[in-house]
From TrEMBL:
<dbReference type="InterPro" id="IPR029038">
    <property type="entry name" value="MetRS_Zn"/>
</dbReference>
<dbReference type="Pfam" id="PF19303">
    <property type="entry name" value="Anticodon_3"/>
</dbReference>
<keyword id="KW-0547">Nucleotide-binding</keyword>
<dbReference type="InterPro" id="IPR014758">
    <property type="entry name" value="Met-tRNA_synth"/>
</dbReference>
<dbReference type="InterPro" id="IPR009068">
    <property type="entry name" value="uS15_NS1_RNA-bd_sf"/>
</dbReference>
<keyword id="KW-0067">ATP-binding</keyword>
<keyword id="KW-0436">Ligase</keyword>
<dbReference type="InterPro" id="IPR041872">
    <property type="entry name" value="Anticodon_Met"/>
</dbReference>
<dbReference type="InterPro" id="IPR009080">
    <property type="entry name" value="tRNAsynth_Ia_anticodon-bd"/>
</dbReference>
<keyword id="KW-0030">Aminoacyl-tRNA synthetase</keyword>
<dbReference type="Pfam" id="PF00458">
    <property type="entry name" value="WHEP-TRS"/>
</dbReference>
<feature type="region of interest" description="Disordered">
    <location>
        <begin position="1"/>
        <end position="24"/>
    </location>
</feature>
<dbReference type="GO" id="GO:0006431">
    <property type="term" value="P:methionyl-tRNA aminoacylation"/>
</dbReference>
<keyword id="KW-0963">Cytoplasm</keyword>
<dbReference type="GO" id="GO:0004825">
    <property type="term" value="F:methionine-tRNA ligase activity"/>
</dbReference>
<dbReference type="GO" id="GO:0005829">
    <property type="term" value="C:cytosol"/>
</dbReference>
<dbReference type="InterPro" id="IPR033911">
    <property type="entry name" value="MetRS_core"/>
</dbReference>
């Protein structure tokens, strides 16, 4: 709107040149108008006294008024408060006023006495189209007001993202900024006014399956929101799933990876009663932070406490009810009179009726794996008060598994013929079928959960193991409104479920039976990937006793996330239980990462920089080079075969095998010597260096699913173009002659025995109160003699043997041998013995 002709033109800024007649004295961008003086535009200048007249519109928030402090004749109206809402903010940098030189500041440089204003307007020149907008501040304090550029960029991204969890976990700065701006009150108000058409935009931009392409849907078992995941939980579910998801994306398959926190059930209800229901949001954020630190690349990490969960779970229930697959029966439950409540399975402990294990839970025995009912336990105890519960009858609903058994067996026969199910998943499922399926209760006498939509049962909720797997569907529905294109599309979608072996029956029997009975063309699991258990040293993880490393502690060890990822995947319990060991972690870091993988990649890159000025030299391949390329290609083909079968541990060993071949190739050809010889030797040095650096570039892609941070570092150091970072079936010339590499630096750091021993003692066990973060103290004073004897020298000795086997340079071996001898000397002195003189060096 143009100013009324009756309003006099403002005086010109005295320091600025005359304004050409062609420049109209009107604001370039829309600005708010005074409701009492609609012909007068308002500029956000320095504060003055509020207008005594109330604003016409009650929706206008109270704010300091606007008055130019230097030009009383300017047509700025003091009646109108300046609204901080997004509509009043310019949407883009504006053209430059002739009187104001370009400057990336929020104040007109011609008027330095005027305070900075959010809209960056020259207070003396209303025709001035403002100073250029500053760049986006990527780290915004939630208590600070957003800048113009913050709001502009946020407004552009919000219709697509809507929350920061939609951004990849690697973009931490952007995630933090987007969350902070979204929490700003004006942005929250603007988000509520988002048109429905724009809300639909996100659904169309989400990752969706495409006919004719390979569409992979990946789920990781939902962790209980109040349980902090330990290393075994991480490798058993989310890390394994993330590694496979990253591989699928590298292959160019359309991939959706979803997970979230399971926030219903007795454990959550009990904690909620103690701390308030709002605490579940805090625990959800704790899980999200842990997985972000471990570089888990969810497409969406959600939660089960959503309206979509209620809607989808109740729809499946109604369909089962309508088709006659639900039974009503009396269930004998344990009730604790001291606590005044029915006890859910996990709050009852007793002796297993099958194997006699004294610490069996009320739903499953951890020793024999049998699913049991709490009333079957011998000598049951309430885990809350240690009282003896009594058996009380109550009415419940059951899923009629025997009636669905025929459908389940027919489906399993087809699925097992075409899909990848781990051996333990098949065995556990066959055991259930062999014993005969029995009706399974799907309701519980709780208040926290998805309500049962049936008269007579409205005071109950769904049992968590009927409800929780439906969380995969509802979390996807929160990601995109077109969730059915993933979950009701079995002809085009391959579903991979990742979990530990104790979750297998619910994913192979109970949940498939629920979906088969619902009869709504649901996508059922094609590939069920279950791990065995990861133990800690010689025992189990225990948060209360301070035994083992939990997700929120790993980053405090000083060991990088990618080293944790590597080691957990290296000992992934694929065929049998495995155990985390601090000594083995140090050994694998120092031998496999540092001296094998890191040594090869660093040497290949350093030879390019040191001998060829940072440019990849020309290569004239010989039979020896071709043999190396054949070995690498063979390992890569085996890598692909293993990854497609989700044999992650063995695939990682293929990668290490390639770098081992590379080290041997460099060691045999000795380019550091040949570069000093004649022309033929120098040409050979160039060929060896060029081949080696191309193998290193291939390793960057192969490593990406396992250690994405290291992969990115290699790509950066070698300056690998993004279009060449994909995975091919064999080795290709990624870095041709003439390609310039960047600065090459070490990828890994050595773990010292003293550092690892301190961590072993820190996480070796102690008593903490209530699961707090109190520093864990050892139960008994450490025996330093025993520690040195059983830990340090053997580890160092193994390291020396590995270095000799890898044929690394003699100087490196000698350094580690010297350390081994020093450790043995310290051990002898600690035990009161005279240090032995090494053989061959005894005094005569």
């Amino acid at each position: 709107m143009s100013p009324s002709p009756s309003v006099p033109s403002p005086p010109q800024c005295p320091q600025s040149p005359p304004v050409p007649p062609s420049v109209p004295h009107v604001p370039v961008s829309p600005v708010p108008l005074c409701p009492q003086c609609p012909h007068v535009p308002v500029s956000p200048m320095s504060p003055v006294s509020p207008c005594p007249s109330p604003p016409v519109s009650p929706s206008v928030p109270s704010a300091p008024m606007s008055q130019c402090p230097q030009c009383p004749q300017c047509p700025q109206c003091p009646h109108v408060p300046v609204s901080p809402s997004p509509p009043s903010v310019p949407s883009a940098p504006m053209s430059q006023c002739p009187c104001v030189p370009s400057a990336p500041v929020s104040l007109c440089p011609q008027c330095p006495s005027v305070p900075s204003a959010p809209m960056s307007q020259c207070p003396q020149c209303p025709q001035c189209p403002h100073v250029p907008v500053p760049s986006v501040a990527m780290s915004l304090c939630p208590q600070d007001a957003a800048s113009v550029a913050d709001v502009v960029v946020w407004g552009s991204l919000f219709p697509v993202l809507q929350d920061q969890t939609s951004l990849p976990s690697e973009l931490q700065v952007l995630r933090s900024w987007f969350g902070a701006v979204s929490a700003w009150e004006p942005c929250r108000a603007a988000a509520a006014l988002l048109p429905e058409a724009l809300r639909e935009l996100r659904g169309h931009l989400a990752q969706l399956p495409v006919e004719g392409e390979r569409n992979v849907l990946i789920t990781s078992a939902l962790p209980y929101v109040n349980n902090v995941p330990h290393l075994g939980n991480i490798i058993g579910c989310v890390l394994s799933a993330d590694t496979f998801a990253r591989y699928c994306r590298l292959r160019g398959w359309r991939t959706l990876f979803v997970c979230g926190t399971d926030e219903y059930g007795t454990a959550t209800e009990t904690r909620a009663l103690q701390e308030g229901l709002t605490r579940s949001r805090r625990y959800h954020a704790l899980h999200a932070d842990i997985y972000t630190w471990f570089r888990i690349s969810f497409d969406h990490f959600g939660r089960t406490t959503t309206p979509q969960q209620t809607r989808i779970a109740q729809d499946i229930f109604q369909r089962l009810l309508a088709r006659g697959f639900l039974l009503q029966d009396t269930l004998e439950q344990l009730r604790c009179e001291s606590c005044g409540r029915y006890l859910a399975d996990r709050f009852v402990e007793g002796t297993c009726p099958c194997c006699g294990y004294a610490e069996a839970r009320g739903d499953q025995c951890d020793r024999c794996g049998k699913l049991i009912n709490a009333v079957e336990l011998q000598n049951p105890q309430c885990k809350l008060c240690r009282g003896t519960p009594v058996v009380t009858p109550t009415q419940h609903l059951f899923l009629d598994l025997p009636k669905l058994e025929g459908r389940l067996e027919a489906w399993l026969e087809r699925t097992w013929a075409a899909g990848e199910w781990t051996a333990n998943a098949r065995h556990i499922t066959r055991t259930w079928l062999r014993d005969g399926l029995k009706p399974r209760c799907i309701t519980r006498d709780l208040t926290w959960g998805t309500p049962v939509p049936l008269d007579g049962f409205r005071d109950k909720v769904f049992y968590v193991w009927f409800d929780a797997p439906i969380g995969y569907l509802s979390i996807t529905a929160n990601y995109t409104e077109h969730w059915e294109r993933w979950w009701k599309n079995p002809e085009q979608v391959e579903l991979y479920n990742f979990m530990a072996k104790d979750n297998v029956p619910f994913h192979s029997v109970v949940f498939p039976c629920s979906l088969l009975g619902a009869d709504d063309n649901y996508t059922l699991v094609n590939h069920l990937i279950a791990t065995e258990y990861l133990n800690y040293e010689d025992g189990k993880f225990s948060k209360s006793r301070g035994v083992g490393v939990f997700g929120d502690m790993a980053k405090d060890t000083g060991i990088p996330a990618d080293v944790w990822r590597f080691y957990l995947l290296y000992l992934r319990p694929e065929g049998q239980d495995s155990a985390f060991s601090w000594a083995d972690l140090m050994l694998k870091n120092n031998s496999e990462l540092l001296n094998n993988l890191g040594n090869f990649i660093n040497r290949a890159g350093m030879f390019v920089c040191k001998f060829f000025g940072g440019t990849v030299p020309a290569m004239a391949l010989t039979a020896e080079d071709q043999r190396l390329l054949a070995r690498v290609t063979l390992e890569m083909r085996r890598y692909h075969q293993l990854m497609e079968r989700v044999r992650l541990r063995d695939a990682l060993r293929c990668v290490l095998g390639i770098s081992r071949h590379g080290n041997q190739y460099i060691q045999v050809n000795e380019p550091w010597k040949r570069i000093k010889g004649d022309e033929r030797d120098r040409q050979r040095a160039g060929t060896v260096t060029g081949v080696a650096v191309n193998v290193a570039a291939a390793l960057a892609a192969l490593l990406q699913p396992f250690v994405p941070g290291v992969s990115a570092a290699i790509q950066g150091q070698l300056r690998i173009p993004p279009e060449r970072c994909g995975l091919g079936p064999g080795l290709t010339c990624t870095l041709p002659a003439g390609h310039r590499v960047g600065t090459v630096s070490p990828l890994f750091q050595k773990l010292e025995p003293e550092q690892v021993e301190a961590l072993r003692q820190r996480f070796g066990g102690g008593q903490v109160s209530g699961g707090s973060d109190t520093t864990v103290m050892p139960l008994t004073p450490p025996n330093h003699h025993h520690t040195l004897k059983s830990f340090l020298p053997p580890v160092q000795g193994n390291l020396v043997r590995q270095l000799k086997a890898a044929q690394v340079e003699k100087a490196q071996v000698d350094t580690q041998v010297a350390k081994l001898l020093e450790l043995k000397r310290q051990l002898a002195l600690a035990e009161g013995r005279s240090p032995e003189v090494p053989k061959g060096k005894r005094k005569k």
